[in-house]
User: Fold this.
Amino acid sequence: MTDLDRAVEEYLTYLRVERGLAAATLRAYRSDLADFADARGSARDWAAGPDAAQRYLAARTRRGRRHDPGLAPTSLRRRAAAIRGFYRFAFGEGLIQRDVSAHLDLPRMPRLLPETLTVAEVERLLAAPPPEALRDRALLELLYAAGLRISEALRLDREDLSLEGAFVRVIGKGDRERLVPVGEIALEAVRAWLDGPRAELVARHHVEPIRGGPLFLGDRGRRLARQQAWAVVRRAATTAGLASRVSPHTLRHSFATHLLEGGADLRIVQELLGHASISTTQLYTHVTGERIREVYARAHPRA
Assistant:
């Protein structure tokens, strides 16, 4: 193990023990820093100054070259942030003599407008599962009705959903809790799932009753996996003729855009989405602006 490898392990331990980062985040940091450590010259030069990190990041920006596809802008920014954080830690712990992090700039993030569906397209998507696929219909309806991330929906337990109060309790990024209203159509779909197939799965597989058990179960009585949820969305999108445009996050984007188009206050949408910063929510105002211009150009007689 090289000095760089040991320093990386110390940093990951710090992130896990003192910062309390989630396992998925730690895996991402480990992957990013392992790639940096494996790069030519990194193990030899990493502690001497910023050259090794700058050389590595410059190489990763080259896209489209044979045997060196480079990274997409969002991935490059994440990797630069991981390396900069590592160097800041190394300097603070006395592992290096210079604060290399001050010489590493984060690449600018491209302002990508999220893909959204029209209300009619969402209705086609939600109607796509066959009548017997009650779980699929309930999952899709809840994703759209509450604007949930797929990970948030899959972490829900039965006790997180109040059928009487018509809301769902969600734990989002940064362990931020929020209560999101759920409309009657989605509640009916979830009730059908709860009273029918889910009840049978709970009884057949003796699902642990902790907090009522997972809201969404797979056929073996375990919490529905992310890959299974993706498959639900993809099947519905294919049936609805929207396969090339839809991911689980598309329903969340459409939820936010449709609220704003309906006149919802930006701060309310921020709360419903669980965004820590309103600047993230403001991205949807650009989507809405584009949609308004499209409608105007198509409908106004003098456009």
